Structure formats: C-alpha cells, structure tokens
Amino acid sequence: MSSIFVLNFNATINNNLPPDKRGSVDAALLNSSMYPLQWQNNAFTEYRTGATYTAYNAGTTYAIGTVVSFNKAIYESLTAGNIGNQPDISPASWYQRQVNFIGADERIRYRASKTVLEYALNKWYGTTFRQPNTLSDIYITTNTVTIPTFLSGKTESYSSITGKTISSGFVPATGSGVHFTPVNNFTIYFPSAVYAAIVGGDNTIRQFVDKYSVCGLVYNITTY
Amino acid sequence: MARTVATIQAQITAQYVTAMAAIGVTIDPTKWSKRNIQQLLINIAAVCVNQYEQIDDLYIAQNETIVANAPAANKAWLRAQMFLFQYDATTPQVIQLNTTTFNYYYPIIDPTKLVVSQCSILTGTIRGTVKIKLATGATPAALSSPQITAAQTYITTIGDAGIQYIVSSVSSDKIMVQADVYYNSQYSSVISANVIAAINAFLFNQSVNYFDAAIKLLDLETAIRAVTGVNDVVLSNVAARPDGIAYGSGTNLVLAYDILLRQWLPVAGYTISETTSGHTLADTLNFIAQ
C-alpha cells in the first residue's frame, strides 16, 4: 500500500530536469548522489512498517546486499561470498538494518491492554493471535486477587487465627502448618514447544512483557 | 521543521563553494545564469532533501498524536469504554482488536445495543482491583445478570492484563430532597416540573461528573438554582439510602436545615430521587413565589 512517507527520488529528479537533460550524465550523477537518500527512505519505511525476511542460516553463502532476519533483527550482507559469519557478531560482514522486525508504527501502539499484549506476544514469538472469544496460541488470564490467608494449622478446623492484634496460637516457621498463597495478577500461557525454543526462557519473555505491563503488578509464565 | 528548498539550496551551494575553493577553484554563484547546470542540479538535490524533511515532520506529528491519545486505562478511559459496551440477548457482541490502530471496535456499531447509562469507577481496596458499577436505561436501573457477565468479559478483554475489574450492577440508591425553592412568580406554571427535571438530570449526570458518582449538596443547590425562574433554594431535609435500606433508616445529609454531611457516595454507583410514596420530589419540594 502506498504511503505518504514513501519517496521516489528518481521520479523527483526526472520531473525537475528539462526534457533534454533526462537520461543525461548529469541526471545519472544526480541520481547516484541521491541514492543514499533513497536508501535511507527505504530503510525508514522498513523501520515504520516492519519487515519479514528469511532467517539467517549459517550454512548459506550470502551475496552482497542480501537481507536476512536474525534474533528478531534485520541484517544486510556487506560482502560477497558471506558464509559462516553470525550477523550480530560480524559487523564487517553484516550491517544491522533494523533492530526490530516489528515496525515502529505498530510498536508505538502496544500497551498493557490484555488483548493488545496477547497480540504483541504472538507477533514477537511468531505464533497465532486470535480475536477475543478464541484463545490465541500465547494467551493471558487475569487472576482473581484475594488477600492471602495466613493460618496456623493444617486445616481450617484445626487452625488458629493470626492477625494484627491477636495471636491465639503459635505459628510454626516450617512444616505443613503454614499456608500462604502468593498471588500473581495475571498468568501468561505459552505452548510448551514454543516456550522450549525460547533461549533464556522466563527472563527473555519478561524482558518483552515488562516493556508494556503495568508496573507494580506481578505475573507468572506457564506452559500448556 | 522542514526547511525551505531555498534554504537547503543555499546550504548546498555554500558547501560547494567551500569544497571547490579547497582545490583551488573559485566559484561565484551570484554570476550563475538562470540556466546554469550546477545551479539546477543543486536545486533538484535541495528539492529531494526538502521532501525528506517534510516526511520527517509528518512522521513526528503522527507519532505525537498517537502518544497523546494513547489509552492509559485510567478511570476516564474505562468509563468511556463502558459507555461503548454493546449487549444483545440473542446476538453475541464480541469486541475485536484492530491490529493496525490497536483500538477496539465492534464489527457492527449499533447504538440500540448500548446498554450502559450510568458508570462509576472506583479503585478497589485490594491492590490491582477496580470496581465498576453500572446501570442501564434513561431511568437508571440494574443490569440483568447476563448483561453484567457480558460487561465483565468485555472489560477484562480490553482492560490491562493483571488488573481485576469487578463489574457490579444493583438497584439504585435513593435520595430524598426536601427544600424551600424561592422562585419568580411568573414561572409558577412550570417551576415545579422544571425543578424536578433539573434534579433528576443532576442525579443522572453524577456518574459522568464524578468517578464515584458522589452527590454533593453544593452541586445539588447549584443545579436547582440554575433553573430559569429560581431565585434561591434552601435545603431543609436531605436523606440518602442504598436500595436495601428502608426509607427512614437512611443517612441524613441535611436534617432540619442543619447540614450533617456534604456528600453522599452511592453504594450502587448511581442515585435516583426517592421513590417511596409521599417522599418523592413532587411531595417534598416547597415552592415559594416571590
């Protein structure tokens, strides 16, 4: 889809030159001079809208200018016969064109809203988002928040109440007498196979979720 | 902000003069003819750069607008969303996410399915909880059980992950207003109906004026005094109660012209005028012509 942000400098140059100068050496020089600006506009478009490229493969030989995705970022090959050079650690062989394969136009709209966060997670991990009333591959449930009960005694019948002002029984530090249930405000569910493939597991996921979730809330990540 | 083509052209020209001087060539742009090819090429380059700077401006403006309008899931946003809640007993109304704008929408927007007319929003006493109290209809009444369930699902879907939204809807609180209303006698034929309508409108709008739908005596007096023809008002007795409390056992805000409480925070999240026979507005307002 065409966008107001997409520029074509070749057309601009051509339209501003007298007819007899179009296709001339002067036009060629000007087009070449403006090529970096065109390249920058193309990269800017990619930054806005995001891009999907074939994943980098260590066994493939890449030509100069070939673009791949690696670790959610986009890289462009700087050399011919480029093989075995991991993009993120080979700056002589690869130029990082985008740090994120998701476009800024989309990322700027991500927020803590449950369904939006579900969409963002599924996009990030390449799984399927589904509209409300149907579970997405990665989905979220908001948990019922209750005041944790602190009981001394194994069951309610044999428990003592411990409160701010009263303590009708001692509280054992260990063993089955203490029941304390921590509460997570929400839970994120991952398909087991997807979770297993995530390098860094929970920590990696939290790096993403923490950018959008409400500060002060706690959550857990589980698989199904 | 994008510079003009002339400004950019002047900058490129100055740079060109300097660069050429460094290699011993003197350039004097003031002597360029109108058909000078260098001038033309620089002008076209300036047009290209100007275009680029213009889209920079557009992109910045677009993003600033998005940031400024970003939903914060604050009380105002929540209330606005609840007023957009659609319900149909036979055709499920499922909210959708627009994956381009990331706004929520109903595939078919049907004003006849907007059921929420009153909405108060309160921060819960337990961390991470929000109480949402709703009512429906022009004469506010409690939502049905299926409506409450649907509203709960709706706000949980669009609200922030981890925030527990507790939707409730119960019968209205009632407020008895006994007052001496001093009015211009030329309005005698309409004053009663207009003051009653003004009080009912005032009560109806409190969930929009305050997130907790508080009924403040000062606001009540102001609403009555705003009626055309009213000169003054003195509240003599004002008592409010939740629906479950019988008339006479409620809370006195004004008792025998003495102000005891300045406001009433409705348990239901909305308040209507007293409905007990003999204590409605038609019974309790005392109109005094002047």
CA-based shape of chain A? elongated
Instruction: Choose one word for the global shape of chain B.
Output: elongated
Largest sheet of chain A: 3 strands, antiparallel
- Total of DSSP H or I helical runs spanning 4+ residues of chain B: 7
The amount of beta strand of chain A, in percent, is 15-25%
Quaternary state reads heterodimer
| Alpha-carbon distance between the two ends of chain B | 64 Å
- How many beta strands in the DSSP annotation of chain A? 9
The pLDDT mean of chain A sits at 85
Question: What portion of residues of chain B is helical?
Answer: 25-40%
What's the rounded overall pLDDT mean of chain B? Answer: 92
The ordered H/E elements of chain A are HHEEEHHEEEEEHHE
The proportion of residues in beta strands of chain B is: 15-25%
Global structural class of chain A? alpha+beta
The domain count of chain B comes to: 3
Q: Brief description of this entry?
A:
With 224 residues, chain A is of the alpha+beta class. Helix content of chain A is 28%, strand content 15%.
Protein described:
By secondary structure, chain A is α+β, with helices and mostly antiparallel strands. Chain A folds into 2 domains: 9-98, Seminal Fluid Protein  PDC-109 (Domain B) (Ribbon), CATH 2.10.10.20; 107-223, no CATH class. Chain A has 6 helices and 9 strands. Chain A has a 3-stranded antiparallel β-sheet with strand order 1-2-3, with helices on one face. A 3-stranded mixed β-sheet of chain A has the order 4-8-9. A 3-stranded antiparallel β-sheet of chain A has the order 6-5-7, with no helix packed on it. In chain A, a hairpin with a 2-residue loop joins β1 (67-70) and β2. In chain A, α1 (9-16) runs antiparallel to α2. Chain A starts with 8 loop residues before the first helix and ends with a strand. By secondary structure, chain B is an alpha/beta fold. Chain B has 3 domains: 5-68, no CATH class; 75-168, no CATH class; 173-289, no CATH class. Chain B is built from 7 helices and 13 strands. In chain B, the strands form 4 sheets. In chain B, strands 6, 8, 9, 10, 12 and 13 form a 6-stranded mixed β-sheet that branches. A 3-stranded mixed β-sheet of chain B has the order 3-4-5. The termini of chain B are far apart. In chain B, 30% of the residues are buried.
